[in-house]
Design goal:
Length: 360
Amino acid sequence: MTLEEFAAEVSRESPNAFAIERGSHFDGYASACRDLGLELRRPDPKETGFYRGGRLIGEMRGMVPDLTSDEAVAICKDKTRALDLLKAAGVPTPQSRYFPPETGYDDAMRHWAEGQGDRLVVKPSDSYGGEGITVGVADAGAFRQAWDLARANLSDPSLPIILEERIDGLDVRAIIVEGRFVCAATRVQAHVVGDGRSTVAALVAAKNETRRRNPYHSNYALRVPAGQDDAIPAAGQVWLLTARANIHQGGEAVDVTDRLPPTLRAIAEQAAKAIPGLGVAGVDLIAEFEGGTGRVIELNTSCNFCVHTYPIHGTPRNPARAVLDCMVARANRGVLYRPRRSRGLVARLGRRMKRLFRRA
Ligand SMILES: Nc1ncnc2c1ncn2[C@@H]1O[C@H](COP(=O)(O)OP(=O)(O)O)[C@@H](O)[C@H]1O
Ligand SMILES: [Mg+2]
């Protein structure tokens, strides 16, 4: 099924309705805590503790549960390190080459000119939310732009820029907890479906109205790409607005937990296991459901569970339950959980002051 076919299929369904206006990554944790009889404490927005009978049994720094090590976070932040480990473990990935941002332009340009053309993706190795990524490079001018955009979006300028083979298929985010598949959503690229009369600008405005009613997607409105305002898509035509599927870029989450072929589940599990210490992973794959094939493009340690709790279509899932089940099982095995950082008031105040100074 092509992306356009999938987009056409889901746009025929009416979107999910939720009782709340604003959703958060922590909602799923709060409800799973209620179900499991745990207490959730957040003394600081960046630190969450899970308690059973007053005793700390696990925690989360930002959105990263303690089941994931700091080393795994560091590896996944640099996509080239993660890709190298995935390739070494035999996980299917796109072909990719890395170029230093300071000195690599000429070599990278030559690589593009050798024939990749529109089949090439240019991305900063520490991109987030799809920022700085160009999917498909039409000509030499576009390559320059793609390179400059990737370079400007490198948050660590010592990291390389990735030139990668463009893969066709559906964009899947699979959640793996301690090596086991939990749930998956497809993120469908921002799109509108034509009616033969309305302009792209009018279709986008109408879709943003619906999107505003979703507790998560409402944070990221669809944007009309430059020069497309007045175009009129044919009736039933799926008009893609961007090639990046991130929700930040206007993508729409659709739950596919029950539709994901077993081979793709296995690839996602194998990918998470390829990184030592990666207890909770958001595996990004580009997949063909019919053939059950897919390639892993990236691993996320800080993955927003709202993709799964507030999908536009499909059954809402709660991966936080699987994370907390692991923490409870660990406590039941008698493992005494030791906080990774001091939780005392003085230590917390010190960390907060440090952050304030950094921001100033
Ligand atoms: N090799 C690729 N082929 C096709 N699309 C890609 C490729 N790499 C990235 N993309 C698109 O860009 C999006 C963001 O890429 P990703 O590598 O996951 O970085 P980020 O950390 O910014 O999410 C993907 O979800 C996908 O839609
Ligand atoms: Mg991604």
